[in-house]
């Protein structure tokens, strides 16, 4: 039992507990409740914006090209939201512990809050590159808002993978600087 206590103390001292990194919440429970509400509000805001774009976009003066871009951004956001929500569910609802043995990691607060926004930017930027035929493949129906939404949803969900693949691709394209 003494070894487990030492092991737990070592884990706490290596900076993984993170409560001081997130001073807004006194307990894990308060942080979990906030993140749950945040995820719900973000979802309904994104879906509300989708409804407005789909049914009222023309009436409020949004051009089709602007609608297409907004659908792509929202698709990426919702893809990142699903990824984020899946993580939230795994950690809280099922009570699974992560690889460090902590039921909740408060220091990942900023990562969890920013994930849908970062995923949206990655997805939208990648979609713009793909629709501009920058990559060695082309998109069918690149002027379709549904296509933009669907592709960006997937790019947003897999945004970490997209970034790693883009980095690997860029390393092949961009020449290395010589030390001469």
Primary descriptors:
180 residues, 0% strand, 6 helices, flat, single chain, mainly alpha
What portion of residues belong to β-strands?
under 5%
Structural class: mainly alpha
General shape = flat
How many extended strands?
0
Q: Could you name the ranges where pLDDT drops below 50 across 5 or more consecutive residues?
A: 6-16
Q: What is the rounded Rg? A: 21 Å
What's the domain count? 1
The overall average pLDDT, rounded, is: 81
H/E series = HHHHHH
Tell me the major beta sheet.
none
SS element count, helices: 6
Distance between the termini: 59 Å
The helical percent reads: 55-70%
What do you see in this structure?
By secondary structure, this protein is mostly helical. The chain has one domain (25-172). Helix content is 69%, strand content 0%. Helix 3 runs antiparallel to helix 4 (109-131), helix 3 (64-92) runs parallel beside helix 5 (145-157) and helix 4 (109-131) crosses helix 5. The longest helix has 29 residues, at 28-56. The protein is flat. Mean pLDDT is 81; it is low at 6-16.
Give a summary of the structure in a few sentences.
By secondary structure, the chain is mainly alpha-helical. 69% of the residues lie in helices and 0% in strands.
């Amino acid at each position: 039992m003494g070894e487990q206590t030492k092991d737990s103390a070592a884990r706490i001292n290596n900076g993984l507990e993170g409560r001081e990194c997130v001073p807004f919440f006194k307990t894990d429970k308060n942080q979990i409740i906030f993140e749950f509400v945040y995820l719900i509000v973000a979802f309904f805001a994104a879906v509300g914006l989708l409804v407005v774009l789909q049914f009222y976009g023309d009436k409020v003066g949004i051009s089709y090209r602007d609608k297409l871009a907004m659908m792509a951004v929202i698709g990426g956001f919702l893809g990142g939201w699903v990824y984020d929500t899946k993580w939230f569910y795994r950690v809280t609802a099922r009570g699974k512990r992560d690889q460090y043995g902590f039921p909740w990691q408060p220091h990942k607060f900023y990562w969890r809050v920013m994930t849908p926004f970062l995923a949206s930017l990655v997805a939208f930027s990648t979609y713009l590159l793909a629709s501009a035929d920058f990559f060695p493949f082309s998109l069918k129906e690149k002027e379709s808002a549904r296509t933009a939404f669907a592709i960006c949803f997937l790019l947003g969900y897999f945004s970490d993978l997209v970034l790693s693949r883009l980095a690997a691709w860029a390393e092949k394209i961009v020449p290395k600087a010589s030390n001469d």
